[in-house]
Amino acid sequence: MTQTSFSYDALPMRVRFGAGSVASLPDEITRLGARRALVLCSPEQHATGEAVSATLGERSAGVLAEARMHVPVEVARRARARAAEVGADCCVAVGGGSAIGLGKAIALEHGLPVVAVPTTYAGSEMTTVWGLTENGRKRTGKDPRVLPASVLYDPDLTLGLPVAMSVTSGFNAVAHAVEALYAPDRSPVISLMAEEGVRAMAGALPAVVADGGDPDARARALYGSWLCGACLGATTMSLHHKLCHALGGTLDLPHAATHTVVLPHALAFNQPAAPEATEALTRALNTGSRALNTGSRVLDAADPARRLWDLAGTLDAPRSLRDLGMAESDIEPIADQAVSAPYANPAPVTRDGVTRLLRAAWNGEPPG
Ligand code: NAD
Question: 108: exposed, middle or buried (C-beta count within 10 Å: 0-12, 13-18, 19+)?
Answer without folding.
Answer: middle
